[in-house]
Amino acid sequence: MVFKLYQKNKILHQTMNDLFQQSQHNNELTFVENKLNPHLFKNILNSIQSHAYQSYYTIDKLANVLDYVLYETNNQFVTPYHEMEFAKNFIEINKIKLSPLFDLKSKFKFDENDALLHQKVLAPLICIDLIENAFKHADIQSEHSFISIQMELSHGFFILTVSNKISQKPPLLKPHSGIGGQSLETRLQHLYFNKFKLERVVQDEIFNAYLKIDLRNGTH
Amino acid sequence: MAKYRNSVFYMLMIALFGFIMYWVGNQGKFLEQKNSSDIVTQAVTSEGYFQDFLNSLQHNLEHPLAVLLIQIITIVLVARFFGWIFKKIGQPSVIGEIIAGIALGPSFFGSYFPELSAALFPVESLGNLEFLSQIGLILFMFVVGMELDLKVIKSKANDAIVISHLSIIIPFTLGMVLAYSIFTQFAPPGVEFLSFALFLGIAMSITAFPVLARIVQERDIHKTKLGTVVITAAAADDITAWCILAAVIAIVKAGSFISSLYVIALAIIYVLLMLYMVRPFLKRVADSSSNGKNLTKSLVAIFLITLIISAYATEVIGIHALFGAFMTGAIMPDNMRFRQAFIEKVEDVALTLFLPLFFVYTGLRTEMGLINDAYLWKITGLIILVAVVGKFIGSAFAAKFVGQSWKDSLTIGALMNTRGLMELVVLNIGFDLGVLNGEVFAMMVIMALVTTFMTGPSIDIINKIFKSSDEVIEQVSYKNKFKILFSFANQAKGKKLLLLSNALSKKQINNSSVTALLVAPSDEIFGFEDNYEEEHLDPVIEECQALNQKVNTMFKVSSDVETEIINVANNGDYDLLLVDAGESIFEGTLLGRLLGFTTQIVNPDRILNKVMRKEGLFENTPFNETTHQITLHSKIPTGILIDKNLEKIDTIIIPIFTKDDIFLIEYAQKFIHNNDSQVIIIDVLHQVNHNFMIKELIRSIEQVKPNHISVIDPKDISPEIFSQQDLMVVSIESWKKLIETRSIWLKNIPSVLIFKS
């Protein structure tokens, strides 16, 4: 009898104990759950914040570009300085496609004392085709991928060089392609007659574009 | 007293022995009288003492040795002068030296100043000149042989060999056809047609490897694909041509093809002997004697004796001593360093002293006057035409066939058409053998000159015509690369800077270039001679191979090291200049010397000591002052490394003071991307938190590469954290601040890279 009572008591004790442990475990669980949720939110918030900032940043640059397109490009010619500022903005906009660790190099070499820097001698948006192409066709996911853009004004020559890694795969057929390059050439031909040089070459999976315009002695 | 003792002793002894000599001289006169009266003393025939002197002077002037010496002086001076002129107009100096030879010969000097010419080059002196020039040629051919790298030919074989052999067989055939058409008028009497034809053939198919190699080097194409192809082809050409020439000489000497077979058999035995007996022997000698750096006298003696024996053997066999010399050069031990050292030893004397003698010797035999009517000039034109068509077009055609581009093919053609002095060697042999007469010899000399002369301009023209996309690619891809230049003065620091460059660029294989710049102070280089460059650059190059990093090297000598570095950096379109805080900038600079800032003050250890307050800290540390110089003048981003046993760059700490320090994040980006480094950013003045730009930049990196970048508040760190990092990256302004405030961080500081944007 006593033994039975003891037995019962022991079982009761056991159950109590189990219950207690369970509740404690539950407590812990809810605690973790409670902690987990805000952390998840924090992470997501981080990403959203980052995106929001980048969106804002990109929109800001886009606004600059819009200004340029609205107020400057109506003229037949713009100053190399403005075109350079435009190119900078344009590159910033395109950065949104890229990882922050992507190997993007842009370099602008303009001599501050160059008389041509603030003269309206350059056709507006002349650099857009080549730069845009680099971002469009760069194989940004491959390991050694890069885009490199250099713009310079020296001794009366405007020189733009763009190179980027491209995919080995043959290009897919797209409804709107293959017009840009041709139209750039025609435009240059029209504006600068034979005082320019445009080369586009692919070598070892690297696309190289080279544009050189002779800005001396005015334009045609 | 002791001071004068020596002087007194000296004077006494002079006086004593002077008197004894005088006395013996006087006593000797009696012996004369006693002996006999038929000793005719000079005094008897003389017409006074001064005339005596004049006579003996005249006699001395005509003495063969005196004549030879004055000839050498004239020749070397004139050759150098002409060589210099041609160098100035962008031609290889060889042409100038050849022309100098012709000018000194009967064609010009001889016909306008016949007496002077006869006095300077009397007929009986030509023998001496010939032998000396022959010895010069033997040494020269030895050098030519050594400059050939047989291994290259073996490894790069196919294309180059095809080009090379086709470029011999085509002109050779054309030469024989030419011989057929001019044999009756121009062959010396008694010469067989076969000999004449073979000689014209070989004369048409020669390429001057040394001249070609020099042109290729001067035009900076020796490292391109085209350069290797053409050098290999020319080398193969050289070997083939000399073997054919040996056979031709054998045939000419033996009189008929059949009887020449004995000579050729002997020659083959000779070649086999050289290849399988002498070559391993020489290799063992070179290996056992040293590490290939220092050539001892006995070593040089062994090689020179081998050379002479080989030349002697081939002369006796009947295939000309020059072939033996060339062969010896070609089988020298493969170690290029060893060869280089040997070449340098022999080349100077052979090229500057002996070779001009050969040119003049050739010039003395070239009589332009023989070509005195229009018909002969026409034939000369024909010879030139055949030579150019055969060699130029022949090799261009071959190159095009094996798949070179048009531009490269034509360039190869133009280069292979260079005949230079090798042609003269062949012509002289032909003249000696009596196969060529004076007229043909003169015509062929003109041909050699014209074909050599046209090489440079024709390459220019080809470049102009094909100002091709190749160059554009090179230009574009070079411009668009991220170009790091690091300058070092001692190899240990060079390795550290290389490690840094590697960490900043290793994943951008196609899009970065690293250049190592070594500027030697010019007063130092005199003592060290030529191996200064190797000594300093080689360990760094080895390190490059270990890191698998491609690197360009640049070596300069300057009296003003600091300015030189700055000039290279500013003019070279580099994106980043890395220097070591120690020797490379400051040591030996003019400024340093003027102000007394030599190593004792501007020494990285001292700077660190100052920084760590083991030594007193001044308001203006010399480091600040001198760094100011470099940062003031370098127009490109510059990084200055204070090295404290930098071995790896896995963890980096970057203190950010102001928002201007944002450019450091760019370098952090590069370190993370290329080197997988982990970066801790210390937000010293709470700028990061308040500046969206920086904050977002860091956050975006963190998103794509977690656990590689973090921002820490300075309150949360202990100073010890610095000593656990591999590198601290800091902007120069912040560095100044750190030093001014005598920050406690400096105590545990790791290696520091100070950036100026």
UniProtKB/TrEMBL annotation, chain B:
Annotated compartments: Membrane
Parts of the chain that traverse the membrane: 7-25, 63-82, 94-111, 131-148, 160-183, 195-216, 257-278, 299-326, 346-364, 376-399
Any matching Pfam family: Na_H_Exchanger
Keyword Transmembrane appears in the UniProt entry: yes
Membrane topology: Multi-pass membrane protein
Residue ranges constituting the Cation/H+ exchanger transmembrane domain according to the UniProt record: 77-461
InterPro entries listed in its UniProt record: Cation/H_exchanger_TM (IPR006153), CPA2_transporter (IPR050794), Na+/solute_symporter_sf (IPR038770)
Record key words, sorted: Ion transport, Membrane, Transmembrane, Transmembrane helix, Transport
Gene3D superfamilies: 1.20.1530.20
PANTHER family for this protein: CATION/H + ANTIPORTER, K(+)_H(+) ANTIPORTER 1
The protein's name: Cation:proton antiporter
Organism: Flavobacterium agricola
